[in-house]
Write a structure and sequence with these properties.
- The protein has helices spanning 16-29, 34-48, 57-79, 89-96, 103-134.
- It is mainly alpha-helical.
- α1 (16-29) packs antiparallel against α2 and α4 packs across α5.
Amino acid sequence: AKNHLLPAPDKKKYSKEHLLLLIYIYYYKSILSIGDIQSLLEPLTQRYFHKDGEMNMQSIYEEVFSLEKEQVEKMQKEYGHAMNGFLTPLYETASRIFPEAEAEDQEFLRIFSFICLLSFDVYVKKQVIEKLIDELPKKS
């Protein structure tokens, strides 16, 4: 509230739209700065908060988060659950490095490498997100 990410409550009561904004903030807070979150959510709030019609906070939330299930399924197919023995291409890549390591070290190094590969993916996507936010039209 003090960073103006949430509009003021109406008569000390928060609406469903406030909760939707809190969900967005929850998702973004672990990867974006408060300033970037504000830059991203402010236009959304200005245009669609307490608006009726087809395009409102509820409809935007439902549309955007309908993609979440699809994205999770895609990632499960891509990465699988390497810890249960389902070897995916990314996990196989991680498994091929450190062939000279001692046998007792190879499992740790395999998992460490897999985590690094996943982290690189997250890092690059975070950089793209930050660049897109920087390119959002600025408030005059």
